[in-house]
Design a protein that fits this description.
This protein has one domain: MFS general substrate transporter like domains (Growth Hormone, Chain: A, Up-down Bundle). The protein is built from 18 helices and no strands. The chain is mainly alpha-helical and about 400 residues long. The termini are far apart. About 50% of the residues are buried. Helix content is about 80%, strand content about 0%. It is globular and about 50 Å long.
Length: about 400
């Protein structure tokens, strides 16, 4: 009896239920959140000014987007579990590059992190689509966002604090331990490809054929644009807000603390998601995009009062978190089951598009105007997303 019960218990513990994916997303979030403020500040220190940082982020994002389109082919050839492992290896490589603190190595390290994040995100989203029913997606997304609230609340400050008070190398070692834990838990779950959507005789997907198919579908196209706008704002928050604060005389630790406090608003994602299920996700998205956009514009107008700027940055993050209450529900509810891998690979390019377009546009803006101008442009872009969100179904 004992020999029978123990294997059954281990098998049940490793079953890929929704809760298992919540844990997986949470561990992955710790690795990203610890670096999310530290990396832009390190880039500013190594590269010298905000405009150069924008150029580096722009070119790295071009590489990341092209790589993301090839990931479905990689997944088809080596399967999801090994594609996830490739992402982990690239993440380890990025940590080694960051620890070198060399301006020539930094762009390579950033590129490794961008591609690693794409691998991990695509694989995790594919497994979610396989194991979480579509009717439960609107409940799963707010819970997923709540699970990453703690990492993004404490991680940004923790990363900067460890780097400033101990050393950059120790910080990268700590993140490396988290990445190793992520890989271990992933393999513990023993996730496998869904045979219903990964036929062994199916030809490798052509990434260039996925683009027309994706953007020919209005709901997928709208979901991608809205996700790109959301991600662009967070690029502004995580990259340019810390640089703005340190340029205004605040310490790196203070900048990290502000990012952490602003990110703590993700704890309310479940409440916003519940309100969205009651009033409609479209209402939640319009409210979040519009309010965050207006507050972001106000940040630029208060540049002569650093304390007010600090408060407005936190408030803008709280408003942007309303949008995160809906998460990726517009896409997850619109994608067809038989083309999940192909359409997911295109959809997640929203992150790289945001990382490409945002620094690209801001590098041009900074060539003419001072740093506060990026908040005017970013805020106006977010307000335009509120206008586009009107075209979502009323009861999404």
């Amino acid at each position: 009896m004992r020999r029978t019960v123990v294997p059954l218990w281990l098998s049940a513990a490793a079953q890929p239920r929704a809760g298992a994916f919540i844990v997986l997303f949470s561990i992955e979030a710790w690795s990203r959140a610890t670096l999310i403020t530290l990396v832009p500040l390190q880039a500013h220190k190594l590269l010298g000014d905000a405009q150069t940082v924008s150029f580096v982020y722009f070119f790295v994002s071009v590489f990341g987007m092209l790589s993301t389109l090839l990931i479905p082919t990689v997944v088809h050839v080596i399967r999801r579990r090994w594609a996830f492992t490739v992402g982990i290896i690239l993440m380890f490589a990025s940590l080694v590059g960051y620890a070198a603190a060399d301006p020539m190595i930094f762009p390579i390290a950033l590129g490794c992190q961008v591609v690693a994040t794409a691998f991990l995100e695509i694989v995790m989203n594919l497994f979610v689509l396989d194991h979480v029913p579509r009717t439960e997606i609107s409940r799963f997304e707010p819970k997923r966002l709540l699970s990453v609230a703690a990492p993004f609340t404490f991680g940004p400050f923790l990363g900067v604090w460890l780097s400033e008070t101990i050393s950059l190398e120790v910080t990268m070692l700590a993140v490396g331990v988290t990445v190793g834990l992520l890989l271990g838990y992933f393999w513990f779950l023993r996730l496998t490809d869904n045979p219903a959507v990964t036929m062994p005789l199916r030809k490798p997907p052509n990434p260039m054929k996925n683009l027309p198919r994706f953007f020919a579908q209005p709901r997928l196209r709208l979901a991608w644009v809205l996700a790109t706008g959301r991600s662009s704002w967070w690029v502004l928050f995580f990259v340019y807000a810390p640089i703005y604060l340190t340029s205004a005389g605040y310490s790196a630790e203070t900048a990290g603390l502000v990012v952490s406090v602003g990110s703590a608003s993700l704890f309310f994602s479940v409440a916003w998601g519940a309100l969205g299920r009651k009033l409609g996700m479209r209402f939640i998205l319009i409210l979040g995009y519009a309010s965050a956009g207006v507050i972001t514009i106000l940040i630029a107008t208060a540049q002569d009062w650093p304390t007010i700027v600090l408060v407005l940055i936190i408030l803008s993050a709280c408003a942007a978190a309303i949008v995160d209450g809906a998460g990726n529900v517009p896409f997850l509810r619109a994608v067809h089951p038989y083309e999940r891998a192909e359409m997911t690979s295109v959809f997640v390019t929203y992150r790289h598009t945001a990382q490409l377009v945002t620094p690209g546009v801001f590098s041009l803006v900074l060539g003419v105007f001072a740093l506060p101008a990026v908040f005017v442009v970013g805020g106006a872009g977010f307000v335009s997303m509120a206008w586009l969100a009107r075209y979502l179904p009323k009861r999404l």
